[in-house]
Each structure stands twice: as structure tokens, then as C-alpha cells.
Amino acid sequence: MESKLYFYAAIVLIISPLVVGDKWGYSGKTGPAAWAEEFKKCAGRKQSPIDIRAEETMYDPGLKDFAIWFDPPRPNSNFTVKNNGHTLQVDLEGEFYVSNGGLQHLYKAAQFHFHWGGQAHHGSEHLMEGKASPLELHLVTYNSDVYSHIGEAAPKSDGLAVLGVMFEISKDDNPAYASIIKAIQYIRDPHKKLRIRLPVDSVSIRSILPADISRYFRYQGSLTTPHCHESVVWTVFKQKQTISAAQLKQFRTLLQRSHHHHQEPEPRVVPVEDARDTLVDSTRRRRSASKHHSHLSQRERDILVELGIQGDREEEAAYIKQARQARAERDMYAEMGMFGDQPAADSLPSTVENQITKADPSNVEPAKVDTQLEMERQVIIDNYRPVQPLHDRVVYRSFKLSEPPVDTARAGRQGLGYVTVDGEKAANSECDGASGVWASSLVMLAALLMALLLVE
Hints:
It is an enzyme of class 4 (lyase). The chain is an alpha/beta fold.
């Protein structure tokens, strides 16, 4: 019995990195609820994100329009897309500035990144009236009047300004994000450290923001990832950007694989037009895998496709073996009463055929591989921090609640409608305006005819 305990203890030491992973993540032992244990600032009183409720905010007439400097980009500017293991990030190289908008300094844009969820009703970090959006963008800028780079500015109380953009799902693709989304297929594995440089004319800082940037909310908060520095002047735009369901799906396939890499490759930056050849060169051993995949379920094959390793037998074998091993060991520990804080079987995604808790640990069914892959996928699919207490902070807005929104129909949004509070799709605002004009004309004509009859 004692020898078995030593054996189990040795296995715990070996696989603990698989269970714990990085110092922080979005689920399990390293999820947002545990961040403050490692990063003390995450327990501060000015944390982000928050739930923004318009009726509880205060109008500030000093919050004017923003100015976006050097957009379109100047020559020698670069947009580089990467997967940092937690999100898709676009690093900016060049002269990109944001000013006005009630900001006291000139802020230089350093990067923007995204937060999303596995379903349409969640994904954004900020909430509007208690409701989440499926996707949120953060444009991170730093105080260039005072600090020379973002690393110096991040811990300082006046260091950062972040512009937050919420998204809604539209029928059509959003062309402003086309080149970024195209790059996703090349960066699904963060450990390959492949960075994709986009054509400088394919992205515009202004185009990734909503058409109306005059209506926004403002508050003092923090970074939404560790170290959670409370150094951010937050701007969250009221108007949403759009993204199609097909485009959003590409974000959700940006998965994290970390268990079978034995050697860290050197970072590489390649132009997007060369990215495909780069990946082909690194996977020349790929062959037809129809027979090789005969023992896998269809869902397992789909996941291998999403991971970008289907056909690479070495990568596939290492990943599936690791998944099976981790699943079997997790079952063993469950029998021993260990790792009691891991998700219960009934809390796993309903799409997974879960037969784990009642199964014999010695009989590892294919569904267990499925479950392990699904659990790992959930870590990167939902990469948002829950809302934090507002405490004694005040949220300001740049507009009066009685003011109508800016007409953005001429800004290329004619095809967009909006959803009323009761969930019914409202008519297009231009149609409403036209029908009002006709109604007024008919009333005036009827009154004129009545006056003529009375005169006769």
C-alpha cells in the first residue's frame, strides 16, 4: 500500500504541470477567482470589467469626440497578428495615436486584442445593462507624453487608456476584420510562435472602431488580465461593431495546445502571403490519414482539424496519447478523492458524450479522449474575466440619455436593424422616418380639404 502511495505521489509531481498549466488562465485552479492569490492587485477596488447601466451613469459634457492620428497608417507601419496563448493579439508598429475624447494626454496605440465566448450570449468582458456580447475588442494605448513605452506605463496610475468595442452578430462579414481573421489559420498553435505580418493597407485603426465614436462611457479601472494594474482610463463605446457568425467561429477555433511540445521554437514573423508556404514546409511529413483515423470519432477528427495538425502523424499521436493519459490519470485521482475542485461531470459541455464518473478507470473509452479535448478547448474558447464590483466609482457618459444616436446609415450601415427590449426586430430607422413624413403630409392634406368644404 505504501509503495502505491509513493507511486501515485510521483505521478502527481509528473503531471501537475498538465493540470495547473500557466500561472493564470480562464478556468479551473488558475481561473479568475484565483488570480488574486498570485497577483495581489487583482483584488483591488478599481478592477475591470464592470456592468455598465446607462441610467446609473453621469453625463459629462467635457467628454468630446476622439481624434485618431495617422490613420490610414504612415509608411513603414506594421500590423503583426499573434496567438499569445490567451487571445488573438495584433501588435502595432508605427505612429498610431489617440487624443481628445476627454483624455488629458496623447496616447500611443500599442496593440489590440479580443475576448470571446463559446456562445452568442456571452464572451465580452464588459456588460451593457447586465447583458454580454459575443465578442469584445480592446485597443490598448499608453500615455506617450510621460512614458517611453507601454511596459513603463502599465503599472503607473496615469499610464494607460483602453478603448473597448462590443460586437453584435450580423448577416454579412465585416471587411475591416477580413485580413486579421484570415491570419487565424496560421497561428492556432501558440507554441510555434509564428507571427503574421499583414499588409499595411489591410487594417485601419478607425475602421475597427464603431461608426459612431461620439457616444461612450468612461470610468477608471484596471487591466482585465494579470497583473491587473489599476492604471486604465476606460472608454467603452455605446455603439457596437459587427461580425458575422462565420467570422466569429474563426476566433473560437483559436485553440491552445501545450502538452506535447518538447522544444520551444524561435519566434518568426512572416508576411501573410508567405504564411501558407511556411506551414507547408514545416509539415512535409503529412500524408493521407483516412486509415490512420479509423479508430477516432468524427468529433475527434474535427478537433484535430481545428488544431491544425490533422495529417501530421507525429503531432496527432503525441496529442492523443497525452489526452488519453491525462484523462485516465484524472479518473484515477477522482477515485482517490483528489482534485475535488475540478469540474464535475455534469458541468461539462452538454455536447460531450460524458460517461466518465461511472466508468471503470481501466476501461478508457474513446469518449474520454473526446472529453479531455473538449475540456482543453473550453479554456481558450471562453477567455473573458467576469465583471467586478464597482465600489465607489462613478461611470460617466459623453451623451445625454434623451439624445438620439448619430445617424450612421451613410457610414455603410444601411442594412443593420436593431433589437428592441422585448426582443422584437424593429424597423429600419430610415423607413420609420419616411413613414412619419407621409403620415404628416396626409394629415395636412385632409385638413386642407376640410377647410375648402367649409368655405363652400
